[in-house]
Amino acid sequence: MNSAILIIDMQYGVLTQPGKAHDLDRIISRINLLNMRARTQQLPIFFMQYNLPGFLEKGSEAWCLHPDLLVEATDKIVHKQSADPFQTSDLQQQLEKQAISHLYIGGFATEFCIDSTVRRASSLGYQLTLLADAHTTHDKKHLSAKKIIEHHNLTLSCAPTIDAMSCETIVLDK
Q: What is this structure's pTM?
């Protein structure tokens, strides 16, 4: 099984405004550590970047990946214009070209882009591992970020093709 890491929308503007995303420093640390392990096994790493006119304008400070993320020249950057990166980018073609069948997914925002990406990837037939402790969001009026994350870890992993696992317990498959 060929695997890849997908890191969704870890962009400065959405992670820091308004207020800092839940557990951000630890999320970034976990993503960096998992990606370092993935690179030693030569697993491809894809960073998604949302292009949103008026807020996440390509090239703006808000649009840039968070400066604490360790991004290597060999990592792929995929630009998207919707919550579902399969809809508005060449992500699927890049994955097919490398015969990727298993995706490890983490990043921002749990209830939007993470949820959309996981559901779409599952419907496309990918085996998925949701990085249960490496996706985040902001508190909402109706629910805390922590509860939103817990809810998505539980509900998304009910599908037979989706596991939710802590980064430190994951044994990466090439």
A: 0.97
What are residue 13's DSSP bridge partners?
none
For residue 83, what are its two tokens?
Answer: 């919550």
2-169 CATH, one of 2.160.10.10, 3.40.50.850, 1.10.340.30, 3.10.450.50: 3.40.50.850
> What is the sign of the dihedral through the CA atoms of 90, 87, 130 and 137?
positive
In the chain, where the domains are located:
2-169
| Per-residue pLDDT at 17 | 81
Which tens digits make up the pLDDT trace of 144-170? 999 999 999 999 999 999 999 999 999
Which has the closest alpha carbon to 7: 106, 93, 96?
106
Separation of alpha carbons 122 and 95, rounded Å: 14
Please report the beta strands in 25-146, taking only residues with DSSP state E, as ranges in sequence order.
Answer: 45-50, 76-80, 100-108, 127-136
Residues with Cβ within 8 Å of residue 58, at least 6 apart in sequence: 49, 51, 79
